[in-house]
Amino acid sequence: MNNEQLIALDQQHVWHPYASMDNPPPAYPVVGAHGVRLHLADGRQLIDGMASWWCAIHGYNHPYINAAMQAQMNDMSHVMFGGITHEPAVRLAQRLVAMTPDGLEKVFFSDSGSVAVEVAIKMALQYWHAKGQANKNRMLTVRNGYHGDTFGAMAVCDPVNGMHSLFASVLPQHYFCDAPPLGFERPLADTDLDELEQQLKDNHGNIAGLILEPIVQGAGGMRFYSPAWLKAAAILCKKYDVLLIADEIATGFGRSGALFACNYADVQPDILCLGKAITGGTMSFAATLTSRQVATTISRGEASCFMHGPTFMGNPLACAVANASLDLLEKSDWKAQVKGLEQGLKVHLAKAAQASYVEDVRVLGAIGVLQVKEPVDLGRIQKMLVDEGVWVRPFGKLVYVMPPYIMSPQDLEFLCQGMLKALAAYFEESP
Q1: CA dist list (Å): 340 to 8, 56, 97, 247
Q2: H helices within 100-145, ranges in order?
Q3: Of the candidates 38, 45, 49, the residue with the CA atom closest to the CA atom of residue 404
Q4: Which of 331, 358, 377 is where one domain is finished?
Q5: pLDDT digit string (tens) for 48-86?
Q6: Which positions are catalytic?
Q7: Do 53 and 72 reside in the same domain of the chain?
Q8: CATH number at residue 15
Q9: pTM reported for the whole predicted model
Q10: Which residue, 297, 331, 365, sits at the end of a domain?
Q11: What is the pLDDT of residues 289-340, one digit of tens each?
C-alpha cells in the first residue's frame, strides 16, 4: 500500500498509545531504522531523540544483536518456562545478579515493565502474608511517580498529577507523600523527609513496601532528585520494617550516568524492577529481582510458591537478545558515552534557558529536559519537530530527549538544535 493508504488504514483501525480514535492525528510511517535514524516512508530521515521510549541504547538494527536473535531463532523462539529451563535465561539471571546492587539474588522474568512492577507489588504483599502480617497490604510511594499502566502499577502512580485519575475510584488505595525536592546536587535539608517518615511512623503496620523511581522520576515529571534523599529513605524503610522497591525500568543500564540509579546512593533495595533497555530496545522483556530472604519467606508461606507466571516468562529469544545487549554494554565504554551525551546536552540545551517560554532546563546522564511554561499541543509541535528532522515526543510541559548512547556529538547537536528551533517556532506561532 502507498503512504496515504497506510495512514488512512492506521487511522481507521489502529489505536495508538494515549491517542483518540475520534479524529485521530496521523502517525508517521516508518519503514526502517538504523543506528540513531528512523527512515520514514516518504523518504525523510529523523534523528531519534527518544531511543524508542528510552530503551534502544545501542541504536537500531545492531548487527551483533541481530545475529544473536537469528541464532536463537534457529534453536527455539519460545518454550514454556514452567518445569523447563534453558541456557539464555540462566545466563541472563546470573549476569543480572552480578551487576545489580548487592543482595539481589533471585530473578523473576516477565514481558513488560508494568508487569515487572505488578510482580514486585505481589512479592511484597505475599512476603508479609507469609510472615503472618497480612495486614501489611498497602504500598507507600511519592507523588509525581509513574510505574506503568496496568491496574496494580496505576495504583502507585501519582493519583492527581498522573495519567490515571480517571480510574481513581476503582484502584487499590495506597499511601502517598510529597515527591523528593528537585535537584540532583541539592543538599539534604532536615525537613525533606518529614512527611515520608510521618507516613511510615503512622502506618508502617499496614505498609508492605515503599516503591519509587531512584533519582529520576520519569513520565511523572522528568524530575531529578538527590542521592542523599534516596539514601535517607532507604534508612527509614529499615527503621520501620518496610520493603524498599526500586523501579529502575527507565534508569537501569546506565541511563542516569550510573549503571543503576541506586548506585548513586549506595542503596540495596529489597526488590528491583528492570525493563526497557534490558534488550537494547529490540524486544519487550523485563525482570524483577529480589533478595534470598524475600524469596525464601514467600516460598515457605501458605502457597509454597510465588503466585505469578506469565505465558511468555523467560522467553528464550528475549533472553538471548538481552544477553547480547549486555555484551554490548559491557564491551563498550558506556560511561564515557553517557558522559559525553550529558556534556553535549548541557551545552546545547543551555541556549534555551533564557527563552520566555522556558521554565527550567535540566540534564542528568543521557537525559535532557526542557520544561516549558504552558503545555504543548502534541500534534502541532510533533509536525514542527519532524520538519526539523528530529523525532522527539513531548508530553504536557515537558520537551525532553533520552537518545541512544551511540549518538555522535554532531547528531546530538543537530537533535538539540532541531528541538530548539521547533520550540521557538511553536511559541512564536502560538495564539
Answers
A1: 41, 17, 28, 25
A2: 113-130
A3: 49
A4: 331
A5: 999 999 999 999 999 999 999 999 999 999 999 999 999
A6: 18, 146, 247, 276
A7: no
A8: 3.90.1150.10
A9: 0.97
A10: 331
A11: 999 999 999 999 999 999 999 999 999 999 999 999 999 999 999 999 999 9
